[in-house]
Fold:
Amino acid sequence: MTSKMLEEALSSFDAVQAQLQQLDPQMIEIAGRLRRQPPQVAMTVARGSSDHAASYFAYLTMQLLGIPVASLPMSVVTLQQAPLKVSGQVAFAFSQSGQSPDLVNSLRLLRKRGALSIAMVNAESSPLEAACEFSLPLCAGTESSVAATKSFIATLSASARLIAHWKEDLELLEAGRVLPEGLREAAQQDWSVAIDALRDCQRLMVIGRGAGFAIAQEAALKFKETSAIQAEAFSSAEVRHGPMALIDEDYPLLVFAPRGAEQAGLLSLAADMRQRGARVLLAAPDDIAERDLTLSRAEHPALDPILAIQSFYVMAAGLAQARGMDPDQPRHLSKVTRTH
Structure:
């Protein structure tokens, strides 16, 4: 039995391929503007899965460009009418539908106050697009399942490519050209052990760090949305500051440990939690012998989290059905969320 969620997740490589064919001229224009008028600070504005994508964007921007990035609470702009001093800075909005009034109004006001406004939005001709000076279409096409998958992956890939153009990073740009093939491979990874382990799960932690923390955040949300599991995402560094008090015998943890400076700490945490009796599902590349789930490698480590979430989505769709749920129609939720 299949689902729209699974079908759309498996079509993510088509969206990324479409971006490669269509978006480079717009990205080059935006990147040129950012280099000519470099901001000292960048802001991100988003909710839900799009906010997790914004976390990935923020991490890469700070790591590769050295520009501090802050996630802006929209209520500060729309409800409090705070006199933010943002002239000469840049605000990035991330959205699937581009319709939420608080998102649109935030970008409209930030632009009015002198910020360069850039939207990454999937739906064409949206209010968000009209509110911003620049807009990058995500090229994911219509997404029917309430659970966002291909639009999330498309946001990550567009984010990484825009940053690569901004930095003029030829290595990252070239790695992005073969990302669609990497997504195809990642979708074939066998994560069935996670379905078996989590079929009757009621709670779990999802652990990541660095750019991979955005993936942990997104995975935790999908566990809630599609499988009604009380899942919470934590940085591996934060777990030791209190949350680990919750971990007892057989407590389930999904740990994302892709390549990078953060990997050693993630592996150490996974080993420690196993010693405490936790049920650890360690997702790591195939050179990590103690892994439970295999992560594909991209041509650049910055793109590894994109392949990780691709493998996760396929598993999550199967897990929801194994739990007797419809991943396309999470209870109480709708595709377009409008907040004020």
